[in-house]
Every structure is written in structure tokens, then in C-alpha cells.
Design a protein that fits this description.
Layout: H1 16-72, H2 79-90, E1 100-105, E2 122-130, H3 131-134, E3 148-156
Antiparallel strand pairs: 1-2, 2-3
Length: 158
């Protein structure tokens, strides 16, 4: 050892070996990044799609309930008119009629018959389904299959 340097230490003869080592390291870093991001972002993607579809279904049920309530408040309408209006509103959603229920009630959830109902009566139209019957089957489910999805609208009879 002379002046603090060891004469037996060997340095690369050219910089090409240093550059080659750097390139291999970058390749490994890219591969590791892709693997980690796949494991992290894939569940996030599935969860985002599932919640997006849940909000779509909820919005469709709400719109159908609103259409049913618009028909229900007319003095000449009856319960079958409300059911028809809700079914027509649900047709473009591709949710089958068997997968949702329609309820026409007062504010205390007592069933109403619209024929002969007095003006000024509050009418509540509910469209309900179970997430298990309409939901998207996700690889990473975050919404339980027994979760109820509701669309509710209240309007006053004319």
C-alpha cells in the first residue's frame, strides 16, 4: 500500500463493462416496476370499474323511480301505469324485469292504490334490486351480493 492506495486493486480496463452493467440494471428495474405496478394497479382498476357500475345501476334505478313518480302524480293514473313507466325507463339499462321490484307507497311505506287517491297525497315510488342479481362479477369484489340498490322518488299527487 503506497500513499493510501492498494496497488493490487484492479479497475475495469474499459468503460464498456460499466455501461453494460448499467444497461442490465435498467432492464431489471423496468421489469420490477411493471410487475409491482401490475399487482398494485390491477386491483384498483377492478374496484374502480365495480363501483362505477354500481353508481350506474343506482342512477338507472333513480331515473326509473322518477319516471314512475311522474306518472303516479297524475289524477288519471293507476298502479299499472306506474309499473309500465318504470319498465319503459329500465328497458335501455338491460336489467331484466325479474331483477328489480317496484313499490308504490305513502311516506310510511304503506302500499297505495292510486285509483281514487286524493290530490295533495305524497306518493313514494321505489325501484329496488339486489347487487347480487345485477352486479358485475369482479375479480376483487368490494360490494356484497346482498347489498340493496335503491332508487326512490317522492312527489305530491295533482
Amino acid at each position: 500500500m503506497e500513499n493510501g492506495f492498494d496497488k493490487n486493486v484492479k479497475f475495469p480496463s474499459s468503460q464498456s463493462s460499466i455501461v453494460a452493467r448499467g444497461r442490465r440494471g435498467r432492464g431489471n428495474a423496468v421489469l420490477e416496476t411493471v410487475l409491482v405496478l401490475t399487482l398494485v394497479l390491477l386491483p384498483v382498476l377492478f374496484i374502480t370499474v365495480e363501483w362505477g357500475y354500481y353508481l350506474y345501476v343506482k342512477n338507472c334505478l333513480q331515473a326509473a323511480a322518477r319516471e314512475g313518480a311522474r306518472v303516479a302524480i297524475l289524477a288519471t293514473s293507476d298502479n299499472t301505469d306506474v309499473t309500465t313507466a318504470v319498465d319503459n325507463a329500465m328497458t335501455p339499462t338491460s336489467i331484466p324485469k325479474a331483477n328489480y321490484t317496484i313499490k308504490v307507497t305513502d311516506l310510511n311505506n304503506n302500499p297505495l292504490t292510486l285509483s281514487g287517491l286524493a290530490a295533495g297525497t305524497n306518493i313514494k315510488v321505489s325501484v329496488e334490486c339486489s347487487w347480487g342479481t345485477v352486479g358485475w362479477k369482479s375479480a376483487f369484489p368490494t360490494i356484497g351480493s346482498n347489498k340493496k340498490v335503491l332508487g326512490i322518488t317522492v312527489m305530491r299527487r295533482e
